[in-house]
Design a protein that fits this description.
Length: 180
Amino acid sequence: FPSHDMQLREKDLIDNNDLFGALAHFRIARNFSGIREQDNKDELVAIINSVTFNKSLSSRDKYKELLDKFRRRYKKELVSATSKILWFVDSKQDFIIYDTLAVANLRKHKALADAEGSSKYFDFCDKWRELFAEHQHDINQAVARTKDFYQKSPHFDERLSVMDEQWFRMRVLDMYLWNS
């Protein structure tokens, strides 16, 4: 289950729309060479915006397009970074965070295809969503109990309303996968 500090850190990054803070938080900044330099930051933002602002693209197409643009610019297959960036800047419900630990532990529950690039990501998402659906009732109960606990504590913080959001519940499964 996500720690309270991690919940608040992610909520602060989201509320402040802090892309570069999120890149550090999700440990993906290292994938983008020279990211400390303003020109490189501007270029990265332009690449991301060229995809996320394109309303004619479906979520699936946004993922493919951004992955391809990153591949051309950075000469790397940034499957994980692409998912995390789109999760952060575009849709927390449409994009599942892909990382090595989640993949390894999801394999304990679901068979994953031996695929590359966007196919690898989409297969992961399909299996992740299956597992989420199978455990959604338990996740909802765990979130409700946790929220109830914090509301009764002397340090109640109204920012706990984040626990009512679907993307937060989805993150609970991520935390489970990372810690299983």
